[in-house]
Each structure stands twice: as C-alpha cells, then as structure tokens.
C-alpha cells in the first residue's frame, strides 16, 4: 500500500513551469485508494457466543469478512487497532441479536475505545417481549480515531443466567467500520 | 456520469516515468465521480397509518437528493435501487406515534429479505411515541434494492412527521464478496 492519503501540497506546489515529482502522482493514487479499496473492516460471528449474567463481555469475532489494512490480527480477533497513517473520522456500526428470554431488564451493546477507556456509543437493546422472540439491537457512531487506538465491542445482559449473543445469517451479530477522511 | 476507476489499473507511478494522458483524464473523472458519488436521501413528511402487527415498508414523499437515479417514486415509492456495486453507508430513522407490545424497524434488502440494519424497541413503553434510528455499512451489488421496514402491534399506529428518513451513500468500491 502507498502512504495512505498523502496531502498533495506536502510533496508538490503546483505552479506553471514546475514539474510534479513522482511522489505527487503517488500521492494522487493514495487519495483515490480510499475509494478504490475503502479503509475498512467487517467482522462477524458464525456461531453464538455465551454472555455471562451481569458481566461486561468482549465479543470475539470468529469471521473476518474483510480487513483492508490489517485493522485486526488473528483469525478470531476481539479488537480493532487503527493503523499508522489511517487516523481520521470513522463510521462504525455494530449489530446484535440476543437469544429469546424475557428475564431481566437489559441487553446492552456498545463500541468502546479500550485505552484510554471511552464508551463511544451504546445501545440498550432491551429484552425480548416473549419467550420465543429474539431481541435485535444496533449502535452506530462517527468518531475521530488516532493511529494506535484500540477498539472493541462489548455486550451486557442481566437475564439471571448466561444468554447467547446469537448468530443470524445477515447483518446481525457484526461489527463494521470505514474511514471517511481526516 | 463518468465512472470511478482504480488509477493503478492505468498507471503505477515510478520515478522518471510520466503518467499517460489516460491517467490524467481518469484523475479528472475520479474527482468528478466522488464529487457526485451515489447518494440518495428520502423523507416521509406526512403521517402514515398502517395496519398493526403486520411488517411493512415506508413510502417516501420527499427526495432531498438523488445523484445516481436510485429512487423512482413512479415505480415504487418505498424502494432504493442500487445502480453501482460498492460499500455503502446507510442511515435511517423512523418515528411511530404509539408503541404496542412489540416494535422493531430497520432496513431490508428486498430480494434476499435480509436485514441490513434492525433494532427492537422497549416493549414496556406502551402507547408512548417511539423513535428509532441507526446506521450500517454494507457491501451491495448493482441491482440490489432496499426499503425501510417496520412492525408494531399497537392500536392505530401512525408515523409522526417529519422524523422518517433514509439516506444511502457510496463510500467506495466493494471490499468483499460478503453480502450484505
């Protein structure tokens, strides 16, 4: 990958009679890389994850749908790290599906910056309305992130016992983010 | 409209090599494309009565923007049609005047009937107004379609104007075969 999103004015001052160096053309391509291959990640689960009662739990993503810039490491990442040169504004969304249960009061989902710890966005999904109806929830944010920032998605429930964060074959049970600019 | 093309497919800059004219032309076309990238923003401004306990879609009334011909009210006033493959940022909001025992809303892809975004609302707030909104990031193909879907089982549900929106923005080329 070329140096991402080079500021063109940092490599060439375009005036009549001046020839642009190769770094300028490389910089032009790096700008369009953001659209040709949007800096982004898409994580999901293909199986359910059990969440203990009243315990904030980090979601482990066992499917990496895509990862354009090594935001994650390993086959089952729990975190996203913003790579060098890709600081900027990110749109992020996380979706969840909880197993059916009318017990308790809360089914939370939130995106967190781990260090320093900040809850970026939280969604109180709320419990099922019947013993057979699952509870769907989602949270989303646009947030400025620095290179090296580490993020994760956490879940919380208080049904009184362990409850599954369930797999559904669509957007539910996923975490995605895309760089929008800086 | 000129199309977006990955510049690396035309020319990879190297020292002492002048890019061909086609590269420069595509730089120009790419800027033109991203300035008017595919984007649609729709809104329903009037109340809308619908049958309780039946999932249905939201018909829109106002087109705030449609840069790529993704919406045609004369064909379907509730559907956005994707005209170009890509990674899309979708945001939506709905407001329902009453909440029954169960309320949910989101955006669905039409053919696959898969949720692109969905959430459920508190079942305890019976007969209180319900506002829901969210955003999602999805890979979509040209030919895919989507609509805002909602459900609630209260009595005489009505959407309150004007907090009912759907916007769809192309943020880049598709990055995965994974759908959505």
Let me know the average pLDDT of chain B: 89
Number of helices of chain B: 1
Unreliable stretches of chain A, pLDDT < 50, 5 or more residues? none
User: What's the helical proportion of residues of chain A?
Assistant: under 10%
Q: What do the pLDDT scores of chain A average to?
A: 88
What is the alpha-carbon Rg of chain B in Å? 20 Å
What fraction of residues of chain A sit in β-strands? 35-45%
How are the strands of the largest sheet of chain A arranged?
A: 4-1-12-6-9
Number of strands of chain B: 12
The major pleated sheet of chain B works out as:
5 strands, antiparallel
How many helical stretches of chain A? 1
Radius of gyration of chain A: 20 Å
Q: Show unreliable segments of chain B.
A: none
Structural class of chain B: mainly beta
Structure description:
The complex is a heterodimer of chains A (182) and B (180). By secondary structure, chain A is mostly beta strands. Chain A has one helix spanning 22-36; strands at 40-44, 49-51, 57-58, 63-67, 80-81, 88-98, 107-113, 118-124, 135-145, 150-157, 163-165, 174-181. The mean pLDDT of chain A is 88. By secondary structure, chain B is mainly β. Chain B is built from 1 helix and 12 strands. Chain B has one helix at residues 21-35, and strands spanning 39-44, 48-49, 56-57, 62-66, 80-81, 86-96, 103-109, 115-121, 130-140, 145-152, 158-159, 164-172. In chain B, the strands form 3 sheets. In chain B, strands 4-1-12-6-9 form a 5-stranded antiparallel beta sheet, with no helix packed on it. In chain B, strands 3, 5, 7, 8 and 10 form a 5-stranded antiparallel beta sheet that branches. Chain B has a two-stranded antiparallel ribbon with strand order 2-11. In chain B, a hairpin with a 5-residue loop joins strand 7 (103-109) and strand 8. Chain B is elongated. The model of chain B has no long low-confidence stretch (mean pLDDT 89). The chains are: A mainly beta (182), B mainly beta (180).
């Amino acid at each position: 990958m070329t140096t991402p999103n080079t500021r063109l004015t940092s490599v060439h001052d375009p005036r009549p009679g001046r020839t642009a160096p190769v770094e300028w053309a490389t910089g032009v391509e790096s700008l369009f890389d953001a659209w040709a291959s949007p800096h982004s990640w898409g994580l999901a689960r293909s199986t359910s994850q059990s969440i203990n009662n009243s315990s904030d739990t980090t979601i482990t993503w066992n499917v990496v749908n895509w990862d354009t810039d090594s935001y994650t490491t390993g086959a089952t990442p729990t975190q996203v790290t913003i790579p060098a040169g890709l600081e900027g504004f990110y749109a992020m969304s996380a979706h969840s599906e909880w197993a059916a249960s009318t017990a308790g009061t809360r089914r939370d989902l939130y995106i967190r910056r781990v260090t320093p710890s900040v809850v970026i966005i939280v969604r109180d999904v709320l419990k099922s309305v019947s013993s057979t109806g699952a509870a769907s929830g989602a949270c989303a944010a646009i947030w400025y992130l620095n290179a090296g920032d580490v993020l994760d998605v956490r879940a919380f429930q208080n049904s009184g016992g362990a409850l599954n964060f369930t797999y559904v074959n669509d957007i539910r049970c996923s975490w995605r983010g895309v760089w929008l600019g800086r | 409209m000129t199309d977006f093309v990955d510049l690396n497919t035309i020319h990879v800059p190297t020292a002492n090599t002048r890019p061909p004219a086609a590269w420069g032309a595509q730089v120009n076309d790419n800027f033109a494309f991203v300035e008017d990238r595919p984007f649609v923003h729709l809104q329903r401004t009037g109340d809308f009565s619908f049958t309780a306990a039946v999932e249905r879609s939201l018909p829109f009334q106002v087109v705030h923007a449609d840069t790529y011909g993704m919406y045609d009210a004369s064909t379907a006033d509730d559907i956005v049609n994707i005209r170009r493959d890509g990674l899309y940022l979708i945001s939506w909001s709905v407001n329902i005047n009453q909440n029954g025992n169960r309320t949910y809303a989101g955006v669905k892809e039409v053919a696959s009937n898969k949720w692109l975004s969905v959430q459920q609302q508190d079942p305890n707030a019976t007969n209180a107004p319900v506002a829901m909104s969210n955003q999602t990031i999805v890979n979509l193909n040209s030919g895919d379609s989507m609509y805002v879907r909602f459900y609630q089982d209260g009595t005489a549900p009505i959407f309150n104007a004007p907090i009912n929106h759907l916007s769809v923005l192309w943020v880049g080329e598709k990055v995965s075969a994974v759908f959505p």
